[in-house]
Amino acid sequence: MRAGRPEAGAAGRPMVVLGDSVAEGWHDPAPDPPGGWIGWAGRLARHLDIPRDRVRNLAEPGATIEDVVRVQLPRARGLDPRLVMLGCGMNDALNGFERAGVAARLEEVFGWARESGAVAIAIPVPRPPFLERSPMSQFRRKRVVQRIADFNAELDRVSRASGTTFPNRESVSKVGDPSMWSPDGIHLNAAGHSYVAEVVAHIARDLLGGRTV
């Protein structure tokens, strides 16, 4: 689900989504309008009764946390969000990263959200079935799994320091079920997106005090 910035004077503050192709909604086609994606972000907006014209999904395929800060965050500044969702880290795990660099970028994103007066929620990086199906070497597979753990550890640490909410992986444990994934093994399918949206909606409602954004 993609929507433009609300017009000046529009009621309510927008929900802003930052991240990669999973945050964009790949492999979960939108029924209306056809040809796009809805994903967990669009489904979350529905759970929270957020109109489509108040959802700004800036996520892009292949994005790392560096891309989020370099490309997406400048586009988000000035949107005055009430809710900020961050979903990235898999591309960082596949390509490698320095933990100090990830921490600094996360601090930039969460710092902006805090200064904007927004509720911010970061999605844990799951372990996709792709890792077990891929012909990559066992050494590289172990490296990627370790990087996923390291990225989640930085998400947890920086979230705690900045007041951002980071659900532990157990709260979204069902994403470990292969039935939640598309055939490529690296993107959630409609069931997976729906599940993540439902879990996050409960968290978001509590943080928003039962109010929509």
From TrEMBL:
<dbReference type="InterPro" id="IPR036514">
    <property type="entry name" value="SGNH_hydro_sf"/>
</dbReference>
<keyword id="KW-0378">Hydrolase</keyword>
<protein>
    <submittedName>
        <fullName>SGNH/GDSL hydrolase family protein</fullName>
    </submittedName>
</protein>
<dbReference type="Pfam" id="PF13472">
    <property type="entry name" value="Lipase_GDSL_2"/>
</dbReference>
<dbReference type="InterPro" id="IPR013830">
    <property type="entry name" value="SGNH_hydro"/>
</dbReference>
<dbReference type="GO" id="GO:0016787">
    <property type="term" value="F:hydrolase activity"/>
</dbReference>
<dbReference type="InterPro" id="IPR053140">
    <property type="entry name" value="GDSL_Rv0518-like"/>
</dbReference>
<feature type="domain" description="SGNH hydrolase-type esterase">
    <location>
        <begin position="17"/>
        <end position="193"/>
    </location>
</feature>
